[in-house]
Specification:
The complex is a heterodimer. Chain A is of the alpha+beta class. Chain A is 52% helix and 14% strand. Chain A has 3 domains: 109 residues, Orthogonal Bundle (Butyryl-Coa Dehydrogenase, subunit A, domain 1), CATH 1.10.540; 112 residues, Butyryl-CoA Dehydrogenase, subunit A, domain 2 (Beta Barrel); 144 residues, Up-down Bundle (Butyryl-CoA Dehydrogenase, subunit A, domain 3), CATH 1.20.140. Chain A is built from 11 helices and 10 strands. Chain A has a 4-stranded mixed β-sheet with strand order 1-4-5-8. In chain A, helix 1 runs parallel beside helix 4 and helix 9 runs antiparallel to helix 10. The relative contact order of chain A is 0.12. Chain B has a single domain, classed as 3-Layer(aba) Sandwich (Rossmann fold), CATH 3.40.50.620. The chains are: A alpha+beta, B alpha/beta. Chains A and B meet through helix 1 of A and helix 2 and helix 5 of B.
Chain lengths: 380, 249
């Protein structure tokens, strides 16, 4: 057992922390209020190599391990979860899926610019009537010999407007149910693609979320990922890795809220002393810290398993479930500790609380994580 | 042309300072170590000069006097863009000792420009850079806030009482740099961090010699007294307080 980080992992954590402090903190409240996409911020994130940090250097990635990724995601999410969700989707859903299951030609053409962060990736699975039940894909991909024709609507797509490369899940053989599903690389500027209005979200407001409509969109056959019918498995495998990114995001929201609560508890005075000296507040901080530490350990354990080539499905789901749930609890307590100040934007914690809610919903709701975990247990 | 940047390994500026061993030693427990901020800016400027030099500046080395604990900050210097690093394997005992070790380690290194931060944020001695120059019998310029190289001409700006001084110099020289030398330190990128794995970090044994100072005891400065506000209408109260409490009049 060794709980020490390597020199390199710590350097990456510090780089992410410095980036978040220097580039994100200054306008995070304003971008949240105006729902403005962090274009320049993501460009700088890409320059530092964070957009494809786990991709093999031969495909222009950073070649870093998943533990480093967790550390970086936590630091960036402490300050700005809108930026970290763009980073997470690009890294652990899109780049991971392409590197693991794409052909050499697909990697050359699509993975490289995504790993360099010159292009942004989006992952299109959810539909108006297929959220947690992802087997019920209504978007169709009709096999036309050398190409497919896509029709249908995808919902809640992170980076839908800013992304250039879409990974789209669609049904080719409805009679085979989920065994008939395929995954495709689709260029966003393909004819027949249109976007729904910008979703006016409760949190993560600086990331752009839209629905995406496909009307007779032609996709070349070489853009299908894996064998015919591999799409559902692809979608689930990508989500398995993506979960670690969102788990670390939830962790960052919680630890960021805890840091702010500790700071405030040392400064704010009531009844003649700093409020942290009152047991009511001190005990809250203790409970929050235990939760954050547990979430961090779960995230790092799952990342370590993945880095060492061991199965991480159950542990990844545990990390995502727990971190998301405690993110909601810890951010809510941070608002409580701040009192009235916690309810106004200037003090950040209300935003962290709004953002935490989404981590219980996207990339597999907390309830779905429990299904994954319990099925894993019963299978053993 | 070869540049050397002297780097001090210092506690993060937000560190809570504590002492151990009957106040004879600084408590390093839980301390985060960083590149001394002035040294980091010196390195930043060196990198900018190298990038703009079209190959004229071939190499940037960094040197630190310190134990193995100093290696993470050296690795960071390599990740930001230094080409190689030298660590003199001994405790940084005092300014004289550190300068002696640096001079001995680099005297045959063929460095054309040596940069050192104006002081280190731990002991603020403001001595090492100039001592290095003395040991090496090289020209030195202090309080440098700007270094430019154009067509082989080296122009330095330094802060002096009541103004600034622009001067030109020839190689080799030591520049002791301060505020203004570079805007902000760089954040290492993934590629740099990956490349830093392979860059040479040479450990050399310390030269003979000893420190000229010893630490008798450490003491924290007195805590700043709380600020007391006096209403602008109430001059009498102000005078009374200055007389009876502050005892300055």
């Amino acid at each position: 057992m060794n709980f020490e980080f390597t020199e390199e992992q710590l350097m990456i954590r510090d780089a992410a922390r410095d980036f978040a402090q220097r580039e994100l903190l200054g306008d995070v409240i304003e971008r949240d209020a105006t729902a403005t996409f962090p274009t320049k911020h993501v460009e700088k994130l890409a320059e530092l190599g964070f957009m494809g940090m786990m991709v093999d250097p031969k495909y222009d990635g950073g070649g870093m391990d998943t533990v480093s990724y967790i550390l970086a995601m936590e630091e960036i999410s402490k300050i700005d979860a809108s930026v970290s969700v763009i980073m997470s989707v690009n890294n652990s859903l899109v780049c991971y899926g392409l590197q693991k299951f794409g052909t050499e030609a697909q990697k050359e053409k699509y993975l490289k610019p995504l790993a360099r962060g010159e292009k942004i990736g989006a992952y299109l699975l959810s539909e108006p009537e297929a959220g947690s039940d992802a087997t019920m894909q209504r978007t169709t991909a009709e096999d036309k010999g050398d190409h497919y024709i896509l029709n249908g609507t995808k919902n809640w797509i992170t980076s839908a407007n800013s992304a250039s490369t879409y990974l789209v899940i669609a049904q080719t053989h409805p009679e085979k149910r989920h065994h008939g599903i395929n995954a495709f690389i689709v260029e966003k500027d393909s004819p027949g693609i249109s976007l729904g209005p910008h979703e006016d979200k409760m949190g993560m407001r600086s990331s752009d979320t839209h629905s995406v409509m496909f009307t007779d969109v032609k996709v070349p056959k070489e853009n299908r990922i894996g064998e015919d019918g591999f799409g559902f498995k692809f979608a689930m495998k990508a989500l398995e890795a993506g979960r670690l990114g969102i788990a670390a995001q939830a962790l960052g929201l919680a630890s960021g809220a805890l840091e702010r609560a500790i700071q405030y508890s040392k400064e704010r005075k009531a009844f003649g002393t700093e409020i942290g000296n009152h047991q009511a507040i001190g005990f809250k901080l203790a409970d929050m810290a235990v939760k954050v530490e547990n979430a961090r350990n779960l995230c790092l354990k799952a990342a370590w398993l993945k880095d060492n080539g061991k199965p991480f499905t159950i542990e990844g789901s545990m990390a995502k479930l727990y971190a998301a749930d405690i993110a909601m609890e810890v951010t809510t307590e941070a608002v409580q500790i701040h009192g009235g100040y916690g309810y106004v934007r200037e003090y950040h914690v209300e935003r962290l609380m709004r953002e935490a809610k989404l981590t219980q919903i996207y990339e597999g709701t907390s309830e779905i994580q429990k299904i994954v975990i319990s099925r894993g247990l019963l299978r053993e | 042309m070869k540049i050397l940047v002297c780097i001090s390994n210092v506690p993060d500026t937000t560190t809570k300072i504590r002492f151990v061993d009957d106040n004879k030693a600084f408590d390093k427990t839980g301390v985060q170590w960083i590149i001394n901020p002035w040294d980091e800016l010196a390195l930043t400027r060196a990198l900018e000069l190298k990038e703009a030099s079209g190959g004229a500046i071939e190499n940037i080395s960094v040197i630190t006097v310190g134990t193995k604990d100093a290696e993470p900050v050296m690795r960071k210097a390599l990740a930001i863009g230094a080409d190689d690093a030298i660590r003199v394997d001994t405790e940084a005992k005092d300014a004289y000792y550190v300068a002696l070790q640096i001079a001995e380690a680099v005297k045959d290194g063929g460095f054309d420009m040596i940069l050192a931060g104006i002081d280190s944020s731990d002991y603020n001695g403001s001595s090492v850079g100039r001592m290095v120059a003395e040991f090496l019998e090289t020209a030195s310029v202090s309080s440098v806030s700007k270094i430019d190289i154009e067509g082989g001409n080296i122009s330095l700006k330094r802060e002096i009482d009541g103004g600034t001084e622009i001067l030109e110099t020839q190689l080799p020289f030591v520049a002791i740099v301060q505020k203004g030398i570079a805007l902000e330190p760089r954040i290492p990128n993934m590629r740099g961090i990956m490349m830093a794995r392979k860059k040479p970090l040479t450990v050399v044994a310390p030269a003979d010699g000893d420190a000229l100072t010893e630490f008798a005891a450490y003491e924290l400065p007195e805590a700043k007294a709380a600020c007391k506000m006096v209403d602008e209408e109430n001059v009498k109260e102000l005078v009374d307080l200055l007389h009876t409490e502050a005892k300055v009049i």
